[in-house]
Amino acid sequence: MTTTIDRLFDVSDFVTEEERDWQLRAREFAQTRIAPIIDEAFEQRRLPAELLPEVGEFGAFGMYLDGYGLKGASSVAYGLVAMEFEAVDSGFRTALSVQGSLAMGAIYKFGSEEQKQRWLPPMGRGEAIGFFGLTEPQGGSDPNTMLTTARREGDEWVLNGRKRWIGLATVAQLGVIWAKDEEGVVRGFIVPTDTPGFEARAIENKLSMRASLQCEIELTDVRLPADAILPGSKGLSSPFKCLNEARYGIAWGVMGAARSCLEAAVSRSQSREVFGAPIGSKQIIQAKLADMFVEYEKGLLLALHLGRLKDAGRLTYGQISVGKLNNVREAIKIASTCRSILGGDGITSEFPVMRHMANLESVRTYEGTDEVHQLVIGRELTGIAAF
């Protein structure tokens, strides 16, 4: 299962045997279970949700968390799994992130022991699907403008508001909703999706991430028991800690999309002939392939460095922003250049490149736009917030 790209610069030289095993098993799962149906799912604007229980059986949901039946794998192992999933499609890797890094991560970090015992084991097995309800229609990259409210009435919390671009909400059994309490403090709540007043609708008009599921949510006097609140959550720093887990996975995942595009371009350069010779024999094509490969490997080594820092407990917000900003930006450039090498056929579904190009535009936007991460890095460099 070694690819052409692997042979030139093999990541297995830098990871443990266990981490490499996770990667190879993820590659086999992605290539045999996701890849055969992903083009059709993209055309049908459908997340292949029937595969989510298999991801749970595989053990990838919340795989870097300890206890509660979870695998306790390294952050590097998780990154490698994310990369292999996104090598097939960004949308399916997003589902891995929403479930494992955001929904499960919020409960793991801020939930009570009872909440963890109740929800994390079935979520890890893929028997219960969760979502993470932070973004709102008017807020986008500024969650401090949050309008969703949670007020206390006796032994209940009552939630009202709207959320948008929320992954998995229409197929989920529960979600973590972020709302401002009566003191204006952001708190997290576990909301079963069968609660009266909860409504989720899929966003249907996407031209990107079509094989994924993003939703709008309306909360109308949603009544929850007092113990629905995540007791450890207080303030925007709580959801941001979850978002940083997802951003870390993106730094790895997009390198999978870049690799997939590179493999298609290399193969095409060897097989397509123009002016009496394969296009790969032309200096300009080889220069493009070489430049793309260099950026791919730099991005992969950056992700690996971030993973080692994370496993050592030393990864900072600014460093995560470096990974998300650089790797998404370079993956988009790689996909675009590969599309040009493929010529007119590059816009067809015969190759995965145009699908990756479209998906990566969404990845560029969610979990912090380029501009947001530039400002995070700028704040780290100057000590001055320019938000």
UniProtKB/TrEMBL annotation:
GO terms for biological process: fatty acid beta-oxidation using acyl-CoA dehydrogenase; fatty-acyl-CoA biosynthetic process. Its cofactor is FAD. One of its GO terms (molecular function) is fatty-acyl-CoA binding. Residues 234-381 form the Acyl-CoA dehydrogenase/oxidase C-terminal domain. Residues 16-127 form the Acyl-CoA dehydrogenase/oxidase N-terminal domain. InterPro entries: Acyl-CoA_Oxase/DH_mid-dom, Acyl-CoA_Oxase/DH_mid-dom_sf, AcylCo_DH-like_C, AcylCo_DH/oxidase_C, AcylCoA_DH/ox_N, AcylCoA_DH/ox_N_sf, AcylCoA_DH/oxidase_NM_dom_sf, Glutaryl-CoA_DH_mitochondrial. This is Acyl-CoA dehydrogenase family protein. It comes from Leucobacter ruminantium.
